[in-house]
């Protein structure tokens, strides 16, 4: 997933595996209650929940949150519009990944065919 260029003013994401909601709030300049709301509105956001329902976000979640923030705050999308935009980008990404897998399989099958013809 691409990180929008409008996030230059945001702090860099440290090389950690998990982030608390407070850390993500600081990294994305969004209040924790907004993050909890976005979890309900965007199915792409699925932080790991541990003891006491504590949320732990992964790097991918932080990137998605930054993208949502950019769509809503910088580009003026509504929640529904941002959700549609993210869903459309996911679909494009899935298609391109599928195409790459098919190309790779085709190359491998052609190599197997060459070996069998010998």
Jot down its keywords:
118 residues; Multidrug-efflux Transporter Regulator, Chain: A, Domain 2; 4 helices; 62% helix; disordered N terminus
Descriptive notes:
This protein has helices at 21-28, 32-41, 59-74, 79-117, and strands spanning 19-20, 48-50, 54-57. The protein has 118 residues and is mainly alpha-helical. It has one domain: Multidrug-efflux Transporter Regulator, Chain: A, Domain 2 (Orthogonal Bundle). It has a 3-stranded antiparallel sheet with strand order 1-3-2. β2 and β3 form a beta hairpin. 17% of the residues are buried.
User: What fraction strand?
Assistant: 5-15%
**Count of domains:** 1
> How much is the radius of gyration in Å?
19 Å
How many helices in DSSP terms? 4
What is the rounded distance between the termini?
43 Å
CATH architecture: Orthogonal Bundle
Biggest sheet features: 3 strands, antiparallel
Q: What would you call the shape?
A: elongated
- Oligomerization state: single chain
Along the chain, the helix and strand elements come as EHHEEHH
Write the layout of secondary structure elements.
Layout: E1 19-20, H1 21-28, H2 32-41, E2 48-50, E3 54-57, H3 59-74, H4 79-117
Quickly describe the structure.
The chain is mostly helical and 118 residues long.
